[in-house]
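Final report, closing paragraph on structural work. Over the funding period we assembled a curated collection of sequence-structure pairs, and we close with a single example.
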Amino acid sequence: MNKLHNIIMYILSLTVISSCIEINGSGYLRLTAEEKSHIKVCTSPLDCVSNDGNLYTVTVEQVKEYVKNKPKVLVYSYLPFCPASQNPAEVKEYCDKNGFDFLVISSVYDGLLPVPRTFTFPVFVIDLTPYETDNFQKYGDEFYSALTNDDSENRQISSCHLFQNGI
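Its predicted structure, as stored:
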């Protein structure tokens, strides 16, 4: 009985640990043609974009431009397939109550469409163009390292990145 208990605990542990691990691809190639039609390149300032049902690709430079003009911004790195991820609407509510501007940026393309109409904010996704990989962990790490100027382990495991006065 004790051995069976250990096996069950091992399987449950693996399930929990791997629940946020997906094939490391961006998910773009798994999108249908209809879903791909909702991926747009963001050509406007980020604060001019609203939730219109599309995902907007963003670069580090665009996000840096946005945060430098705001007193307090919380950038939320969202993985929609990860059960441990906080619902972006709840993070937005927290930001509203505490005087933060809010950006939600996904590292992956799948699992986001259709964008919930209840989101009162746009959903951005990392533009893959500058990166020579489809591995979301690699390009996500490069994106957030460049955005935060921080390559520490603490930054690598964080889903929320707070900027005050552009820093």
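The two ends are 55 Å apart (CA to CA). Helices lie at 2-18, 33-36, 60-68, 88-98, 136-148, 153-156. We thank the funder for supporting this effort.
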